[in-house]
Amino acid sequence: MIKIFGVSILEDYDILPKLSEEVYKYLLSEIPKYDLVIVNDFGHGFINRDIIETFSQARFLAVNTQTNTDNAGFNLITKYPRADYVCLDEPETRLACQDKYGKIENLILLLSKNVKCNKIAVTHGQYPTIMYDGKFYEIPTLSNGLKDTTGAGDAFFAITAPCVATGLPMDVVGFIGNAVGALKVKIVCNRSSVEPEALYKFITELKENENGLRVGHAQIDASPPESHRLAGW
Q: For the Carbohydrate kinase PfkB domain, which residue ranges apply (predicted)?
């Protein structure tokens, strides 16, 4: 399937001051109640500096700042003073570092310093995902059929954020994220979600077909141990 064109109509302005104050007060009271705060910042004016300030209270803060045709160059991860986990794609990483050609590992090191974050994932579409936790891990793509890439990065972020927060090794996190991404690109638009049963089946089939996968620098079993399963999955 090839996307020919898209039409977006947006009211492109900052969040109104009154609404911003309401959101600010709500987040100040609610954020301390949670173990994990996931911020999907699409860069359309809702999340301003005051709202970003409230995220500093999070016990564990996971952030994705999306770059799209409506916000290119204006919605960078560097507007966040800190994060515990950052998930970006390669163009978003390069924009944040103002570096079009540099080695991606060097840019990740720069981001880690600027955002005070030591857990970073950078996705590359059909190329290996780079995971960082002080060391680098290359995680191969697992998709064998592509229908629609819409939402694949969001799916990767959604599953990997709680994995990182629970302390899973970053190479294992990248494997799980790429497994979910492989399932998501087979779903047209957002017609359905990636369900746990489909993920377990996919990982089991990988194990049966490959007898284990080499991820990063470690040989891992393609079926996650019971202790690594997320609550409710």
A: 80-186
Which tens digit of pLDDT belongs to each residue from 127-143? 999 999 999 999 998 97
Residues 132 and 176 sit within 8 Å (Cβ to Cβ): no
Indicate the pTM of the whole model: 0.86
Contact call for residues 85 and 61 (beta carbons, < 8 A): yes
Q: How far apart are CA 80 and CA 23, in angstroms?
A: 18
Helix 170-184 to helix 196-210 angle (10° resolution) is 110
CATH code, 166: 3.40.1190.20
Give whole-number Cα distances, 113 to 116, 119, 160, in Å. 5, 11, 21
In a domain, 114, yes or no: yes
Q: How far apart are CA 47 and CA 212, in angstroms?
A: 42
**129, part of any domain:** yes
User: Is 148 inside a domain boundary?
Assistant: yes
Total number of domains in the chain: 1
| Within-domain flag for 188 | yes
Query: What is the Cα 177 distance to its own chain's centre?
Result: 9
Q: Please, are residues 173 and 167 in contact by the beta-carbon 8 Å criterion? A: no
pLDDT score, position 217: 42
